[in-house]
Amino acid sequence: MIRSQRWKGAAFTVPFQLGFVFLYLIPIGYAVYESLFVEHQSGLGLGGSTEKFSGLDNYQQGLTDSAFMNSVLRVVLFACVQIPVMLLVSLLLALFLDALSSKAAGRFRILLLVPYMIPGVVAAIVWINLYSPDVGPLTPLGKVFGLSWNFFAPSMVWPSIGNLLTWHGIGYNMVIIYAALQGVPRDLFEAARLDGASEFQVALSIKIPYVRGALVLTGMLSIIQMLQIFNEPALFRNVTPQTVDDSFTPIMVIYNQAFNAGNYHYAAALSVLLALVLGLASFLFYRLTAKEAD
Amino acid sequence: MTLTAEHRKAQQVRRLNKPDPAARSRGGQRFLLVGLVLASAYSLFPVWWLLVAATKNRTGLYQSNGLWFSGMHLWENLRQVFTYENGIFLRWTANSFLYAGVGSLGGTLIALATGYGLARFEFPGRGAVFACVVGSFLIPIALLTLPLYLMFSKIGLVDTPWAMLIPCLINPFSVYLAKVYTEATVPFELLEAARLDGAGELRIFFSIVLRMMTTGGATVFLLAFVNTWNAFFLPLTVLRGEKNWTLNIGLYNWTGKRLESGVDLTSLVLTGALLSIVPMAVMMVAMRRYWRTGVTLGALK
């Protein structure tokens, strides 16, 4: 490629590079910088405040802050249950669709994708009302079967949120897995069937290994999303603040520290810590899934 | 098309090969159908419930069966939503359209140029730019939003539309998709031919590349639009006064009114929620060809 042309090519990416520097790199750098300071109120807090360099004190505080560490543990545990369940259901539905004629599959695919069209906040609002003992149909339904369930009870909040996320997410994940299934060479199945393999065996030993890539990808995206969960618990908190407290998830802790306690320095340190947790979780997941391939 | 044909052929072969085709496949198909019908019912019933709830007045909402109609009060509810607090809901709707529409348009143009640059040119630092794009997927939203809030408040942008519009201009996922689409649709030979004919690089981009990328560009725009429309943490953080809020933030605020001040807005919230789905649904159905390819292509590469 001619030299001048190279630079013209680079020029096409300049707006993005500039934006990336100002909206990604500088903010991250700024957050790291801010996290190294603490604010000191002078006197009675009337004379303004001064900032003092404190090294890694904020990080040390964060690592021993039980509210923050508990929130991290809570979302990690939740992700460990929620993601396998959601992906398993999505995979199952994708396999079902794959076994149908393409016309029937197309119809079901559209129906199953309806929840994906609904904004996340609206999905949470709808489910919160379905769960509600006042207006929701699920409470009277439970009575019919002799169940008196309370979806906002402490032990039920995570299952309630999990169901909402599964409802919202299976369509999208199913479409990705289904698209990967469509790429499996069909003659592989025929060969297996001729050898006497059952449909179940074909699915287990040909189809699923073939869509591993799609599963790893949807798993990775889900991990990143689950550890940062905020919208759903925030909306649940609007109706049941006793069970969903203000430090229910890591992002809620960070939001509170920044905007309710006004402690930006500490909030910045916590968001850096969360980034590290996210990086570590993705790395572990990647290593785990890469190992299985060998 | 070939895929469908192959699929059909494969099914025929499948039937021929089975030892006991009738019994086995009919039972199997019935099992699959039952499973899928149940899953579809699970997917649809909350939407149905919302639709029904939006047609009820307060008494109906609290006392009648949730899955069936009781009286037709949809118009009344709509009037209430649009007139509550001097029509603030309309303002939120306009804001959502403004942020999602203008922000995604700008973001898509920047993404297409960047994707084209990355896919069709060799230049020093290209790998680094692409690494930034992919690496940014792992950055938690709080790590970006908090410092952005502090920076924006220093230059007086907090609580203005700019605080939403500016971050929308840079969308790494759009860039990633644009690169994938360029690789799939813009051949090197064509660019070489245009250069031999003496066309400048900018002209090639605007009159050839952009035209070839209409499908890809539409997908990138659609996904960015959906993303911004659904955004919650960013607008919650940078938009403080209710006149600049989006639909999401407005509805969130309405759901909190009951515990905060004892005003029960459930009826308003549900009708408002239904209304906020409409633009999304219309857009996704109208552009389904684009987002289907977009979702799957972006995911598989």
Q: What is the number of beta strands of chain A?
A: 2
- Intertermini distance of chain A: 39 Å
Low-confidence stretches of chain A: none
> What percent strand of chain A?
under 5%
Q: The CATH topology of chain A, please?
A: MetI-like fold
Order of helices and strands of chain A: HHEEHHHHHHHHHHHH
Largest sheet of chain B: none
The value of Rg of chain B in angstroms is 25 Å
Q: CATH top level of the largest domain in chain B?
A: Mainly Alpha
- State the name of the first-level CATH class of chain A: Mainly Alpha
Q: What global shape of chain A is seen?
A: globular
Give the helix level of chain B as a range of percent.
over 70%
Task: Summarize the structure in words.
The complex is a heterodimer of chains A (294) and B (301). Chain A is mostly helical and 294 residues long. Chain A has helices spanning 3-12, 14-34, 57-64, 66-99, 102-113, 120-131, 138-144, 157-182, 186-194, 199-210, 212-227, 231-239, 250-259, 264-293; strands spanning 37-41, 49-53. Chain A has a single domain (53-293), classed as MetI-like (MetI-like fold, Orthogonal Bundle). Chain A contains 14 helices and two strands, in the order ααββαααααααααααα. The radius of gyration of chain A is 24 Å and the shape is globular. Chain A starts with a helix and ends with a helix. Chain B is an all-alpha fold and 301 residues long. Chain B folds into two domains: 1-45; 84-300, MetI-like (MetI-like fold). Chain B is built from 16 helices and no strands. In chain B, helix 12 packs across helix 16 (288-300) and helix 14 (247-261) packs antiparallel against helix 15 (266-286). Chain B starts with a helix and ends with a helix. Classes of the chains: A mainly alpha (294), B mainly alpha (301). At the A-B interface, helix 1, helix 2, helix 4, helix 5 and helix 6 of A face helix 1, helix 2, helix 5, helix 6 and helix 7 of B.
